[in-house]
Amino acid sequence: MKILITLSFLVILVGVLFYFLTSPVWGSVKKNPQVNIPVSEERLKADVVKLCTTSKPRNSENLDTLNEAAAYISSEFRKAGFNPEEQKFIAGGKEYKNIIYSYGPDSAQRIIVGAHYDVCEEQQGADDNASGVAGLLEIARMLDSLKPNLKYRVDLVAYTLEEPPFFRSELMGSAIHAKNIMDNKIPFKAMICLEMIGYYTDKPKSQEYPVKALKAIYPSVGNFIAVVGRTGENDLVKDIKIRMLEGSDISVESINAPASMPGIDFSDHLNYWKYDLPAVMITNTSFYRNKNYHQATDTWDTLDYKRMTETVKGIYWAIVNLQ
Q: SS3 of 254, please?
C-alpha cells in the first residue's frame, strides 16, 4: 500500500510539474482558416540579407555600421507608415540608439515587441538576430496594411547593445528602454522578445535542452518555435502559444521555468523581468539547436525562410489578439 501511495504521489507531482512547466494546450489547436496574414517570405529574406551584408559586422565597436543598420530599420519603419523614434544613450563614450515604431491607442497599455540588431564580434548574425529584426519590420508592415483595431498600444523596438560586452549590463538597449518604462510609469501589458526565429531543421536528434529531463517532454527535432516565460507567467505564455497556433502553420512549444535555468533569460526580456514586468521570449532555442550561434557560419543562407514566415504570422496574430 505504501508503494502505491508513493507512486501515486510521484505521478501527481510529475503531472503538476508538467502542467506548470509546459503550459499545455488541451485539445488540438489548428490554424484558423479565416486568418489571412500576408507576411512575405521574400521581404523577410531581403531584410536579413541587408542586415547581414553591411560594410562591417554590426557590433558595438563598429558604430558606423550599427548606425547603417539603424538607418535601414528606420527607413523600413517609415515605409510602414510612421516616423520612428530614436531612443539615444551613451555607452563607453559613444552614442547608441534604439529605434521605436508605435501603433495603436496612445493611452492604452503597451505591448512591447523587441529584437536586437547588433551582433557578437565579427559575424553576419543572420539568426542572431537579423531574423528577429526582420520579423519586427514585417510586423510593422502588417500593422500598416491590415490596420487592426487594437485595445493595446504596440511598440516595436529594435534594440542595440544586447551582445557582449554589454550583455547583462545597465547599458543594454533594452535595459535603457525598460528603465524608461518604469521611470515614466507607462501603462504596461507585456513584452515579447524575438530572439533567433529563423533557423529550423528536420534532422533527427537536432534539438538539445539545458536539462536532460526535458528531452522526455519536448521534441527531439528542431523544427518548432518556442514561447519561453518565467515560472508564474503561464497565462501569458499559454495565450501567446494559442494565438500563434491559430495564426500560423508552425509547431509551437512553450515553457515556464525559473530564470536561473540556462537559456531562459538569455535575451532582452531579462531587463523587463528585473522590474517584475511580464515578458516572454519567442525563440528557436538558440544554441540548443543552431550550432552557428556566435560563429562566422551564422549566415543568411542558413535560414529557413518558409518556417520563419509562419512564425512571424503567428507572432502577429498573437500581438493583435492578446487577451
A: strand
- CATH value of 21-321 in 3.30.450.20, 3.40.630.10, 3.30.70.600, 3.40.50.1370: 3.40.630.10
Owner of C-alpha cell 530614436:
86
Task: List pLDDT tens digits, range 60-110.
Answer: 999 999 999 999 999 999 999 889 999 999 999 999 999 999 999 999 999
Give, in degrees to the nearest 5, the angle at Cα 176 between 172 and 181. Answer: 140
Number of other CB atoms surrounding residue 2 within 10 Å: 6
**Where do the structural domains in the chain lie, given as residue ranges?**
21-321
For residue 131, what are the CA distances in angstroms to 215, 306, 309? 26, 12, 10
Residue corresponding to grid cell 537559456: 263
**Half-sphere exposure of residue 253, counting CA atoms within 13 Å on the CB side?**
20
Q: Which of 12-21, 141-150, 213-222 has the lowest mean pLDDT?
A: 12-21
3-state SS of the chain: helix, strand, coil percent to 5?
Answer: 40, 20, 40
Residues with Cβ within 8 Å of residue 22, at least 6 apart in sequence: 217, 218, 253, 254, 255, 256
Bridge partners (DSSP) listed for residue 251: 224
- 84: three-class secondary structure by DSSP: coil
